[in-house]
Amino acid sequence: MSVAVLGAGAFGTALAIALARNGGHVGLWSRDPDHVATMRATGRNDRRLPGADLPANITVSDQLADFSGAGTLLLAVPMQRLDGFVRDHATVLDGRALVACCKGIDLTSGRGPTAIVAAACPRATVAILTGPSFAADIARGLPTALTLACADAAAGESLQAQLSTPVLRLYRTEDVAGAELGGALKNVIAIAAGVVIGGGLGDSARAALMTRGFAEMSRLALALGGRAETLAGLSGFGDLVLTCTSTQSRNFRFGQALGAGQAFDTTTTVEGAATAEAASALAERMGVDVPVTRMVAALVRGQVSVPQAVEALLSRPLKKE
Question: What's the predicted TM-score (pTM) here?
Fold first, then answer.
């Protein structure tokens, strides 16, 4: 076994399925023994990814030691849990290729996934896999293109070859900051887009929000060391389009519920909610103007209502684009 996916949520399971279809044995780890037992018995992960069969060459386990032979580990752990996970298991993880598969900014430290992984596992080769993708599409074998960002060009090339499949196409970059921030910040704008639609403001307003949101994403990412061309690629603009226009996006659905004044399933991870808070703090330190991000953070905290948020954004001074 050369690859294992740590985290049996929807995205982690979908990645394991895609890689297993490409040949070879793939590991899939869940921290919950009962969840593992159910997946082994049914050959499915209906708790997180209903309707998708697990290929026979996927080994499911709740023991990390079962994947000691895997040189590449995909960390499909929610962003706000990643720091604790890698620190708790650093002795097992360190020294291997570790590919973060989450999107966001840590609320406590303000760091992205690769910085968190590298701090806990200094001997590891660290990368991030991000871009426009829904777990259900990947599991069904539908064509998907993602960004693989790794500061080590040679290691990135090796991981690209190892993790690409005929229908899961990976594009490589060394711009880790740009790839991370595009994937993180688009979730915040997706919440705002959901608010627009849920609040009945229409598709024209959503288009305007996405456009100004992308400008805001780019300003902050460039200030933090990202490249404009990365933000214009899959991990930025591509992911923004997908998550702002589809109800498959949890962040969009969350915003839609906010906009409509409806309850939302709190068991569903919405990375953009915490990222809005973290990104607002980062932007303030960097002196970057991020009005949409600040407004999403205020909405999530319950500090403003949807009508107040809309009025505040529409009353901003007119200026050149």
Answer: 0.94
